[in-house]
Structures are given as C-alpha cells and as structure tokens.
Recover the amino acids of this structure.
C-alpha cells in the first residue's frame, strides 16, 4: 500500500509539473530588425508626414527569421503620443523567402499577398511621424509568423495583435526618434 501511495504521489507531482510547463508561454525567438533610413536613431524629414516631409515608407530589413516562418508582420507606433500608443503603419502577410527579408515600403505587385491594416489616422497606409510637439520615439515591431493571416485590408491593431499572437514564432524591434520642427505643422 505504501508503494502505491508513492506512485500516486509521484504521478500527481509529474502532472503538476506538466501543467505548470503548459501554462508557461512559449519562448519567442528574437529577430534582428533594422531601418537603414533611420541611421543614427533619427527619422529624416523624408519619412515624416509633417509639412515639408515626404511621408515615404521606410525600407526595413528583418533577419534571423526562423525556417518555419511563412510571413512577416510590421507595426510602427509612437508610444510617446499623448492619449495612447499611436499606430502609424501596419503591414502583414509579407512573404518570407529566406532568413533575411528586405521590405522596401509597402510590397507591391498584382499577386502580392501583403496587406495593410488601419493606422490611427484612419488610413490603410504608412503615415509618418508628426508629433504635436517635441521629440517622440517611434518603434517598428516585426513578427515572424507560421502562416498568413486571414484578415482583410484595414484590420484594426487589436485584431491584428490577436492574430499575430496566435501565430508568432519570433519578434524584434527597432526604434528611432523624430523631433517636430517649429514650422513643421
């Protein structure tokens, strides 16, 4: 009887350890993300949506992409915005063709599966920095996903985040700052 109690205790302990391990979130690999256009950590006017800016979407390089990744998603936001984290750009379903992918603005082409979600200006496109005042930091988040996302153009950030979290294999980010010039608005 004592041996039976020991076996039951060992099984319960193993079950508890298994449940604890299952409750732990899966560890996500790290992507290398760079935005060569934002060298030195500063966003040039060309990428700003302020008056005189070009509002050009930057080129982004994502490397160390896991072999199992099928697509990438990008989100650029401003965590320094006064009311909330302000979304400037969301792109998803960017095809992965190798361990390094260069996204040169919004991928183009008739048969391109990449889609753009809504930004906080209400547009499905890149809208660059133009803070109300001072200097803001902008973060470009990149995610490697195990599949394409079944989401439409114009999807909200919340729905995109939920889909990303369900398919995320790796993530990384790059940041830069933009300072509003007094005559920019």
């Amino acid at each position: 009887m004592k041996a039976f109690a020991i076996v039951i205790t060992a099984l319960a302990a193993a079950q508890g350890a298994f449940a604890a391990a299952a409750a732990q979130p899966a560890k996500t690999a790290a992507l290398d993300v760079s935005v060569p256009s934002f060298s030195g950590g500063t966003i040039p006017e060309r990428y700003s949506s302020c008056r005189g800016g070009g509002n050009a979407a930057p080129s982004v390089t994502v490397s160390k992409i896991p072999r199992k990744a099928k697509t990438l998603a990008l989100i650029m936001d401003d965590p320094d915005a006064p009311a909330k984290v302000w979304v400037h750009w969301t792109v998803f379903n960017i095809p992965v063709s190798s361990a390094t992918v260069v996204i040169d603005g919004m991928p183009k082409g008739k048969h391109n599966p990449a889609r753009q979600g809504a930004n906080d200006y209400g547009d499905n496109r890149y809208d660059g920095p133009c803070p109300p005042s001072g200097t803001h930091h902008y973060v470009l988040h990149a995610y490697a996903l195990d599949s394409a996302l079944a989401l439409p153009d114009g999807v909200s950030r919340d729905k995109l985040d939920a889909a990303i979290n369900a398919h995320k294999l790796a993530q990384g980010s790059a940041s830069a700052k933009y300072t509003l010039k007094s005559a920019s608005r």
Notes: The CA atoms of residues 57 and 106 lie 7 Å apart. The beta strands are 29-30, 32-34, 59-63, 71-78, 86-95, 100-104, 115-116, 135-145, 168-179. The first strand starts at residue 29 and ends at 30. Confidence is low (pLDDT under 50) at residues 3-25.
